[in-house]
């Protein structure tokens, strides 16, 4: 007779082969690879197209942050899913917390900078060149990264 799925899983767990058949691992791997591919393609497009290098489009920084935030939690979640464990060391937890808070808060600050940029471009188009020069955009982006770092340091 054909064994049931529960008995098959028990057999696989006894042999140590259960990790390669876990559907949640493959789902997480698919999500992670899709995020890596999507962000990688956008980063490549921004790096290759010089029209997207203008200061008002802080896209490269935004997608690097997105790539970092998904790379903070998903690899550990995939490893835990593959080996059927929930263990994480204290330094690993602190590092994961620091990086996740850093990437998320920096992304939020950067989105705020981008919203301000669009506000000036729409509401004060004649003053755009004087208000948001490339140096001002670099300073705002650096302030977003710095405030994200300080926020993560404070919360960790």
From TrEMBL:
GO cellular component, one term: plasma membrane
UniProt GO molecular function: G protein-coupled receptor activity
Protein location: Cell membrane
Gene symbol of the encoding locus: OR1F12_1
Organism classification: Eukaryota, Metazoa, Chordata, Craniata, Vertebrata
Alphabetized UniProt keyword annotations: Cell membrane, G-protein coupled receptor, Membrane, Olfaction, Receptor, Sensory transduction, Transducer, Transmembrane, Transmembrane helix
Organism per entry: Spheniscus mendiculus
Stored SUPFAM superfamilies: Family A G protein-coupled receptor-like
Residue ranges occupied by any G-protein coupled receptors family 1 profile domain in the UniProt entry: 38-156
Protein's name according to its UniProt entry: Olfactory receptor 1F12
Xref: InterPro entries: GPCR_Rhodpsn, GPCR_Rhodpsn_7TM, Olfactory_GPCR
Superkingdom, taxonomy of origin: Eukaryota
Membrane topology: Multi-pass membrane protein
Main location: membrane
GO terms for biological process, alphabetical: sensory perception of smell
């Amino acid at each position: 007779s054909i064994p049931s799925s529960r008995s098959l899983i028990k057999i696989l767990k006894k042999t140590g082969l259960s990790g390669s058949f876990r559907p949640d691992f493959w789902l997480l791997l698919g999500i992670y690879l899709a995020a890596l591919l999507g962000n990688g393609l956008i980063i490549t497009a921004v790096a290759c197209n010089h029209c997207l290098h203008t200061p008002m489009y802080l896209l490269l920084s935004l997608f690097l942050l997105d790539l970092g935030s998904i790379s903070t939690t998903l690899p550990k979640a995939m490893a835990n899913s593959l080996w059927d464990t929930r263990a994480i060391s204290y330094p690993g937890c602190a590092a994961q917390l620091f990086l996740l808070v850093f990437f998320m808060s920096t992304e939020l600050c950067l989105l705020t900078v981008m919203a301000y940029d669009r506000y000036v471009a729409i509401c004060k188009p004649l003053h755009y060149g004087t208000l948001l020069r490339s140096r001002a955009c670099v300073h705002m982006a650096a302030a977003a990264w710095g405030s994200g770092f300080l926020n993560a340091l404070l919360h960790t």
